[in-house]
What does this fold into?
Amino acid sequence: MSQISSRKFSARGPDTNEAWCGEETICLYGWDSRSQTWHGPNALGPGAGPDRRLLQSLRAAPGNSWYGAVSCGSAGERATRFFVLVHDLSDCAVASIYCDESKAGPAEIVAVVPASRRARLREEFAFEFLAFARFLGALGAGDEVQVHDAIAAACTEHRDARAVVFSMSSGIWPRDLDPVLSCCVEKIAITLCEWLKGPGLS
It folds into this structure.
């Protein structure tokens, strides 16, 4: 397994502490294509709620997909606008996060697997998610085996977690602006977890 990525998320506990992946927690894992490093689990929540405006938009969208702008920012910084494409795939949700007006592909691809859908998670999930990320240019061919094995292992660990989230960074976002992209990934991951519970269950 590769070294831990230097990318920082607002984790509520140490990266390697399983105790933080309990009932009220979302475990986030990820791959940084720039440094070719795997990170996680980072524990999101408890106490971090969904973005209400985004959640309302997702629930109001017809069908199982949504596309729109999401503004995110780190403390003391001006908010940055991203465009997000979301699909509910019955056993998980996948979101592609694009930089504002970028035509170079997504900055991040996120898959959310809520605890309520773990039992029906397709056996090919890791392979299919990586194929999707590879198609969009977020993963190099030489990294596929390592990332596949890491995702497959994470899917079998932390079975008491509220949800498991996988994030693939393509590396096109400037390194000095990583905090704002990380903030966007967290906001979307937490909100998608709430959305997948269904209306009226929050």
User: Anything to note?
Assistant: The radius of gyration is 15 Å.
